[in-house]
Recover the amino acids of this structure.
């Protein structure tokens, strides 16, 4: 399965299907994510830097909603000397299948435990770092609190959660502006208005964003002691939460 250009929504669909991470999306995912999420390559690179800083002995590192394993690879590469096991989890069989191939080609099969499953239901081992890189937004809102609480409970003192999300703003004018700037970013990367519109329809009630305040409140309630916004571009943000 080779990387291809994302043209899933380039022609008009009589009925736009609900978005899912199926084989069609997996084939174009690297192109899709690069052209859709501002700063995505930098976020991946810095996840590796954060792993090198925060990985602790005798703990694992989690990539929850790992897709094709980009964050997994970054964490493993910069913790090679520490040797922390990396546990990468996704609920898409197509993603897991392709990630297995990519991680094998990168020589990471022994370092990485790749699991297919629902991250919001799994049991966690003691960890010093967990990554939710644009994952929480796809989990039903009513399941998010309990999930984050269980993840925090498994995170050792001084450990971290990296939470990257598309966010919404309380102020409607601000929300509209940031959304339009994101659409301008996508147009600059070659997406047409038709593609932007149809993708937005496909993601409706699938990707459910929250405000920064809602994320911060959940993280504090779960027991994270310090929360930092370390990346922001338009309506995309990444938080560093320290246990």
């Amino acid at each position: 399965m080779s990387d291809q250009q994302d043209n899933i929504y380039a022609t008009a669909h009589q009925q736009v299907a609900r978005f899912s991470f199926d084989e069609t999306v997996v084939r174009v995912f690297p192109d899709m994510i690069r052209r859709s999420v501002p700063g995505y390559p930098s976020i991946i690179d810095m996840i590796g830097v954060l792993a090198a800083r925060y990985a602790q002995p005798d703990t694992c590192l989690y990539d929850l909603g790992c897709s094709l394993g980009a964050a997994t690879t970054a964490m493993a590469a910069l913790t090679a000397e520490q040797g922390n096991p990396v546990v990468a989890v996704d609920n898409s069989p197509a993603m897991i299948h392709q990630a297995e191939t990519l991680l094998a080609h990168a020589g990471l099969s022994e370092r990485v435990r790749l699991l297919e499953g629902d991250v919001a239901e799994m049991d966690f081992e003691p960890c010093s770092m967990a990554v939710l890189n644009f994952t929480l937004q796809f989990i039903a809102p009513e399941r998010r609190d309990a999930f984050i609480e269980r993840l925090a409970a498994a995170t050792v003192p001084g450990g971290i959660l990296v939470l990257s999300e598309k966010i919404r703003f309380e102020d409607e004018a601000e929300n509209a502006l940031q959304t339009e700037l994101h659409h301008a970013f996508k147009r600059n990367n070659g997406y047409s208005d038709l593609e932007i519109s149809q993708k937005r329809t496909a993601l409706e009630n699938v990707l459910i964003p929250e405000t920064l305040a809602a994320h911060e409140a959940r993280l504090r309630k779960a027991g994270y002691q310090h929360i930092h916004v370390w990346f922001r571009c338009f309506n995309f943000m990444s938080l560093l939460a320290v246990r």
